[in-house]
Design a protein that fits this description.
CATH topology of the largest domain in chain A: Tetracycline Repressor, domain 2
Oligomer: homotetramer
Structural class of chain A: mainly alpha
Largest sheet of chain A: none
Number of strands of chain A: 0
CATH architecture of the largest domain in chain A: Orthogonal Bundle
Order of helices and strands of chain A: HHHHHHHHHHH
Radius of gyration of chain A: 21 Å
Distance between the termini of chain A: 54 Å
Shape of chain A: elongated
Number of domains of chain A: 2
Strand content of chain A: under 5%
CATH class of the largest domain in chain A: Mainly Alpha
CATH superfamily of the largest domain in chain A: Tetracycline Repressor, domain 2
DNA sequence: CATGAATGAGTATTCATTCAT
DNA sequence: CATGAATGAATACTCATTCAT
């Protein structure tokens, strides 16, 4: 946690520091990110930095939290309507919201993404702590609810499928970014919707051809 | 390519060096991996290292090749039988072989994994060259063949699904490792098989409940 | 250019660093000069050095400038009186001033000398930039002026003679140092003056015996 | 001195080694020259090198001697005719021969040149030993003889002028190379002769305008 | 609360020389 | 006489963190 000194700072300065840090951590991995570069960009003294934050990790944790909070804002509407909508609608909305978050907060999204992919297990444990498991847990609850409602095949392995769905969320986001690499934020969401639709369809129905005579296993 | 001096070394010493390097690159990213640590572990002189290898990259490339070669040994049988087996059998075998490789060569697998996730694009291009794109391409070909044979639903987005299947391969491997974290290599493959079975089932059939009255979209 | 941190240093420390660097660069070529030796002599931390200077070249450039500035101080009076004095007086004064500079700033003079003789063309271009060509050009202008005034034989090859005069400047300096090798700075300039006088005389009149019957070419 | 093992080598191999060394020392200063590069170029084992030569210095000394011997071959005819020709003819021929040596043995000449310019005084003393002073001594003898014969102004400082003449030899060689930088060896020596002529003329007559009313000093 | 100098262990790479076979 | 592996000190440069003012 940043020290009190940081929160006592005039907002302008605080923002300058945060932006510098977001910039740095979105460009470089935790290890490669440089405090020196951050203080230069933010135009503060080296010493000041260590009066605001315990150390590099302290700053990173804070930045990561900001990213998580921002993402939650995108997911919130979907989560709120969760009870009144069927599983696949919720899943579809979550995927769309996830992509929208990345589209509109590219740098912030990169930070979490980079950490997800990192092999620095110590760091991941340090940062995620409780967060990660919960993300899975939430999908498990959603799946169980879907089964109860008769929307989901009850024979699936809930644990495994929840992990699959989580990772497929990353997959579709990456895929979307790669196919729309220009990085231009358009208001035309038709292709985004179509892509999500296709993925959800696959998750719903699988990829095996359906026919009355196709009974295997 | 390592210099001749390296291949002329007594096998014991060569192995000591390779193990030290594999250890290092499985623990640290390319950038963070330390030649000093490697030569200390391998108990050779700093100067000797540079008699064996051009530089750090030369060593890494060599280690990566070893990893790739080793993995291929696991996939080979499946690839050879590809023509005579249906899509899902091939996919199942590929997933199983992938997990087995990781189980039995954890450190080696970590090296490739780490590189895959790395954001050092220069390094990735240096190492992969042609390899990377082909991996996706291979699954696309497999899918198209499955469609032709009437095994796969022809309405799927082949591009998207191939990406999904690739990433699900990583997902299941990670998942397996996490649920069997003790790292003990057992000869009992029943749980592994079961897990793969479940994932393949989900991919085949989707997770939506099947009933004659289930009209969607 | 050294960083601000360097100029903000207490003068004593700054001088200590400069002296250490001057010592090093007067003893060793740019390539062989060692930052480690410099920081040890100056008694500062390795890291501190890089807070003061961008890199080795940055330091060298600074040291070289100091040397050039110092030399200019010696030449200035002569250059200022150039218009009102005849060619040979100016030349004589330039040679004398050159020797005096070397006598009283041996180490500094060595640094420029060493660079002049260096075969590291990249470095020379980096450092000299515009300076070098001008040195020759200046003597050419001086010669042409001398010809116009009727002081210099108009049949000479101005280009060639200017190169000769430049190199003879180095020659006499070296010669003076070698004949007074004890390195003792005396206030008795009589021998210095005499030596310069002799050289100028030779340049003026040549070494052929003068007689009405000695017409060749 | 190279060890006997070196002189016992088959000529072909010995030449290969010498050429590799000449190449290296003509491209790099003594310090920067690399034994590793030499043995690679010569295609011999690292260890073999140290069976032929004591160390780097031993090799350099040998190469330097070869260069000196080769140069002497060019000067020999002039030296032989010394007695029967007047001072300026001898000087002219020496200068011309010096340039010709450089033109036709560029690499060898570079080696001596590089050493001359070097500030590594230890090395210079090591190598020159007796050689250097003699070169000056020879010119002094020549000058004295010229004075006796009535060719040279007896009022000159013989010591100083001999140093001047030595250095002017380097000056004109450099100047010639710079104005004919293409490095193409032509058989047309007219420009070379003209340049030497001009310099000798300057040395003979000086650069002061000659007139009956020009009384100085 | 601001400042910025000080620190020193860390990085990859080079090189002449030695030595055992 | 040939070989080539072994050596280790040396190089310039980086970086997170501390500390005194």
């Amino acid at each position: 946690m940043p020290k009190n000194t940081f929160f006592n700072l005039p907002e302008k300065k605080r923002t300058r520091i945060l932006n510098a840090a977001i910039d740095e951590f979105s460009k470089y991995s935790y290890e490669k990110a440089s405090i020196t570069r951050i203080v230069n960009t933010a135009n503060i003294a080296k010493g000041s930095f260590y009066q605001y934050f315990e150390n590099k990790l302290d700053l990173f944790r804070h930045i990561f939290m900001i990213s998580a909070d921002e993402k939650l804002k995108y997911l919130k509407p979907t989560l709120d309507k969760m009870e009144s909508e069927d599983f696949f609608t919720t899943l579809r909305n979550l995927y769309v919201a996830g992509i929208e978050f990345v589209k509109e907060n590219y740098k912030l999204s990169q930070i979490a993404d980079r950490l997800m992919k990192s092999n620095n297990e110590n760091l991941k444990n340090e940062i995620f702590g409780e967060t990660k498991p919960k993300s899975n847990h939430f999908l498990k609850v959603l799946l169980l609810k879907g089964i109860k409602r008769g929307e989901i095949d009850s024979s699936i392995d809930v644990e495994l499928v929840s992990v699959m769905l989580t990772n497929l969320s990353f997959t579709i986001t990456e895929y979307y970014l790669k196919t729309n690499e220009k990085g231009i934020v358009t208001d035309d969401y038709s292709d985004l919707m179509e892509m999500v639709e296709k993925m959800i369809y696959t998750i719903e129905n699988g990829i095996k051809i359906k026919g009355e005579d196709n009974n295997d296993y």
